[in-house]
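Hello,

Our lab assistant flagged a job as stuck in the queue for most of the afternoon. It eventually completed. Since we weren't sure the result was trustworthy after the delay, we are filing this so someone can double-check. Below is the sequence as submitted and the structure that was eventually returned. Let us know if re-running is recommended.
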Amino acid sequence: MSAEPVTPSTSTAPRVAFFGPFGTFTEQALRTQADLCTGEQVALRTVPDVLDAVSSGEVDYGFVPIENSIEGMVNFTIDALAFDHDLVVQREVVLDIHMCLAAQPGVQLGDITEILSIPVATAQCHRFLREHLGEADIVSAVSTAGAAKMIADEPSAHRAA
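-- returned structure --
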């Protein structure tokens, strides 16, 4: 009886879920990781969706925001990792970000009465928002990119993201 030599399996490119939609800072950070960009990137709506996809084996890796230098820990990610999933953090990626306020063409700063964004982003911009848009309502969105898409898809002379 002879044993066949074990041949390493040819690994396929990894499937990586990230906190989407496409265009988020999370996707930008993911794109800095060459080894994770060789396969399919799957944009999911929420951080728990990303972690669920990893836990179920639907994807090989998940890529989520965990901390930012101004606001600290991203609590919804920390809570999901601590209480809902048995996953291991494999790396840290640092991404320098720059925020902008986006609105339909022609909308002036003084016209804006509603700002859509995620709480972490509005907290990062609190000084600017307080100084220039102190009376505007802040409306929570799922992601900064999602908020920008809403502004683009649903024109308003009074909303920005």
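-- support follow-up --
The delay was a queue issue, not a problem with the job. The result is valid. The first helix runs from residue 25 to 30. Confidence is low (pLDDT under 50) at residues 1-10.
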